[in-house]
Inverse folding.
């Protein structure tokens, strides 16, 4: 499938805030041309027959957002238990219902989440949930890009299972992969952490984990081990081959030094940290230290939406409140986190920009909406006033999976109608929550 | 014009979180029937010929959002100067450019903002900006509901002008009105405040003002007057006939006691307070004290979007962070602020609910989108995962002004095309900012 986007503004994310005007061509799952098509390469590209030519009407092409931390299958709990303390929420409203989920339930619930990612301009997610095989099936069938992460802890999954997933869920699809991970420092024994570190060493692979999400968990951890979670996990060798921490809200200067030294990335989850009252991560400090930063929504039971526009505003907004400075974490840094930072941390550098040879993970944003007018500084406009209502199209690996249409069932091209995916998810929710 | 909405879910905002299923009928600018239409009143209502019948497809009708504090004409500055300290921003990026605006410029810029309100489900705003006559013209021509507030201070407008606007801009249209107001305690002399208090007494009218937005302004004010802005303004008699304060971020227990005792409402502006690093208002304390609370976006140069969905999430989210409690400010309280609280503070009680005899200021929210699925608790869903992308229709005073369509120019029914309104606003921006 060869597609030509023309009459476009293009934010490549390779040239700062600069915006080109011109064309982007794709062939199969790759970008083949970016430019104004008046050069020889452009003429050659145009001479090739396209399967589809799309007039972008002056709207903006940019790399899709990377949602670097989520639990997609939790869609069934959205709005079921809000405004509750974290402990009560987890123990009475999450764990008992999760225990009833089958792999097929999670397959259906993940499909609903994928529709939400697509309608919000997200082209790849980093996922941690209970049944990696059925989750990979959902993503592959729908054509969506997903990096799964193991979530082993003292109560579920095992080192053997993580190794099995690592060997069976990698290399089978261009769209999906599996990375080594643990749930969190406070749900894993020291022995288990050591075994996962050994597994990472065996495969020279990065490791991912929830780290230092709440003040309470960090305080209790220090009580047990006499050091911070970051210091402990690093000293156990967990990140000897890189990786990243999710949340990282409650860290200190020594933690930041370790994150930098070991090349450990940060995935911030400001929507979840806000709704669950976990606190505000020190993003200004992370930026200043030169850490690689990505942004994630966390799961739909703790956010509750899977919307990178909300997360982008919160990433800078909460930093401004925390630092008591309107200058903190400028908009373009946030846009970089939501695209290139995510791609780097998720191991998808081939999706981080619009350039020939890169994967065609592209979105088209509608600038002809009131919230984007007048045209002034478009990157800032995306971060401060953008909305998923501005997403006109989402392409993953060269396939257009979402195009905004009046009828929801005309909007998605994922092999099944949105209505049917809604119905299946509702059925799971109704059976489990009653 | 008689309109019948059928096959709807209906959140009337008069019966807690309860959601009816059935029909809403409007005639002229009023709601004439709400129910399942199987009763006699419903049969009678249906027997009347409708000009239009709208199948809501199971989606949700609810009262439109009230944006209780904004400066619409500042659309020309959106994204022109972000990530700057407040003082530098105001003095180098706002005031010099505002000085160049004509009344006709502000008319055009306000029209752009009204498109944004409508596309986000906002049916009325409380406006404070420079040229009330041209602003009222914009609202009336487009059919939009607007309460303007005087913004007199030591440098612009005057008591005489406020009185003139009060007498000439009230009673001329069902859609627009004008209320007495001052810009802020820190930009008005004691004498000016006294004169406005006398004007309010003359007309037995409420007064509105920015109050206690930043810590610095409160500290300096205390240095000058030896008391808080709230205590001072109340002691000067400014609120003897009610009114409300915008922002009210930096207040103490004594302030809250005064606000309660004098019946002064609170309009919170969390998006602006976040972006400008002004702080987090004590909304939990205000709720506990039983104050009337409304929500506003503030202007598009300080937010930067005019989106009540963002504000609703921030109202509860920031309160949760401030109180270190995921239970703070439950979702339905937020929805009440965004609808009934706004209507009360803005003096528009006839727009606060869906019931016979109320004004037909109604929105239709699309529940058949991924972010609203599965259906569970719809009010919470609106606050925690709702988006302007869910707004299917916005009706003001019985007229449908917005219906989501693929083509932007088919979406608005405001007497001029959106494209033309965009073009006019861009021209103003280009002339003034270059």
């Amino acid at each position: 499938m060869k597609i030509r986007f023309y009459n476009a503004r293009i934010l490549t994310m390779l040239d700062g805030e600069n915006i080109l005007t011109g064309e982007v061509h794709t062939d199969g799952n790759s970008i083949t041309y970016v430019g104004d098509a008046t050069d020889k390469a452009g003429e050659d590209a145009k001479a090739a027959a396209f399967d589809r030519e799309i007039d972008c009407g002056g709207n903006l092409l940019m790399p899709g957002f990377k949602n670097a931390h989520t639990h997609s299958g939790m869609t069934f709990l959205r709005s079921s238990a809000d405004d509750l303390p974290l402990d009560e929420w987890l123990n009475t409203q999450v764990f008992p219902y999760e225990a009833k989920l089958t792999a097929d339930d999670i397959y259906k619930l993940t499909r609903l989440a994928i529709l939400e990612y697509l309608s919000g301009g997200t082209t790849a997610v980093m996922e941690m949930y209970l049944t990696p095989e059925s989750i990979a099936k959902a993503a592959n069938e729908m054509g969506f890009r997903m990096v799964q992460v193991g979530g082993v802890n003292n109560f579920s999954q095992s080192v053997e299972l993580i190794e099995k997933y690592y060997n069976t869920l990698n290399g089978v699809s261009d769209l999906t992969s599996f990375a080594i991970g643990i749930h969190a420092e406070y749900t894993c024994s020291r022995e288990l952490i050591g075994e996962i570190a050994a597994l990472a060493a065996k495969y020279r692979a990065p490791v991912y984990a929830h780290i230092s999400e709440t003040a309470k968990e960090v305080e209790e951890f220090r009580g047990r081990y006499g050091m911070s979670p970051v210091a402990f996990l690093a000293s156990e060798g967990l990140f000897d081959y890189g990786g990243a921490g999710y949340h990282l809200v409650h860290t200190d200067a020594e933690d930041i030094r370790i994150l930098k030294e070991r090349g450990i990335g940060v995935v911030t989850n400001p929507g979840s940290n806000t709704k669950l009252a976990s606190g505000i991560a020190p993003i200004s400090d992370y930026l200043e230290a030169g850490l690689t930063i990505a942004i994630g929504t966390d799961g739909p039971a703790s956010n509750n939406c899977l919307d990178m526009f909300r997360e982008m505003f919160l990433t800078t907004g909460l930093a401004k409140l925390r630092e008591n400075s309107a200058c903190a974490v400028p908009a373009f840094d946030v846009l970089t986190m939501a695209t290139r930072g995510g791609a780097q941390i998720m191991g998808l550098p081939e999706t981080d920009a619009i350039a020939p040879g890169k994967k065609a993970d592209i979105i088209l944003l509608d600038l002809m909406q009131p919230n984007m007018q007048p045209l002034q500084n478009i990157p800032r406009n995306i971060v401060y006033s953008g909305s998923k209502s501005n997403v006109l199209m989402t392409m993953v690996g060269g396939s257009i999976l979402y195009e905004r249409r009046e009828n929801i069932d005309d909007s998605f091209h994922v092999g099944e109608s949105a209505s049917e995916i809604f119905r299946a998810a509702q059925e799971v929710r109704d059976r489990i929550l009653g």
Observations:
- The two ends of chain B are 45 Å apart (CA to CA).
